[in-house]
Amino acid sequence: MARDLGVYRFEDIVEGPTGSWHVRDGAEDLFDRPLGSESAVRVFWSEPATALGLPLIASVYEYGFYHGVRWSGDQFRAVAAEVDRLEAYWIAAGLPPDTLADLRARAALVRQAVSAAEACGGWVVIT
Fold first, then answer.
1. The organism sits in which domain of life (predicted)?
2. How many domains is the chain partitioned into structurally?
3. Which domain holds residue 29?
4. Which residues have CB under 8 Å from 114's CB, separation 6+?
5. 69-71 and 2-8: which strand pairing?
């Protein structure tokens, strides 16, 4: 199982009771890329983000691998800063060059998704 990174228009996210949400049936994503496998997201994204105090990125795996996260509005600036800090961590960690290159490419995808969602006033969704 893998985590996917998507962008949806504001009206494509349906709020449910008790803070739940889902993507509206028939909604078309504006951006769709893979973030990584379950183990890669846990090991390279969520665990270091938790240790570094990066709550938005840590939440990608926080509830296990069966719940999605979404970001909008003011969270975009915060998640961009978190991605910068996480990327600096990866660089300092001395990861193998191919692993680091892959992670940095996926971090660039997160930045692209944030930019696309900002442009349309929508959501970045990771499911």
1. Bacteria
2. 1
3. 2-126
4. 71, 76, 79, 80, 124
5. unpaired
Nearest to 125 by CA among 35, 26, 58: 35
What DSSP line would sit under 17-83, residue for residue? GGG-EEEPTTPPPSEEEEEEEHHHIIIIIIHHHHHHT-HHHHHHHHT-TT--EEE-TTHHHHHHHHH
The token pair at 16 is 């449910």
Measure the CA–CA gap between 96 and 116, rounded to whole angstroms: 30
**pLDDT tens digits for range 39-97:** 999 999 999 999 999 999 999 986 555 678 999 999 999 999 999 999 999 999 999 99
Residues 13, 70: contact at Cβ < 8 Å? Answer: yes
Q: Is the pTM of this model over 0.85?
A: yes
What's the pLDDT at 63? 59
Query: What three-state secondary structure class fits 125?
Result: strand
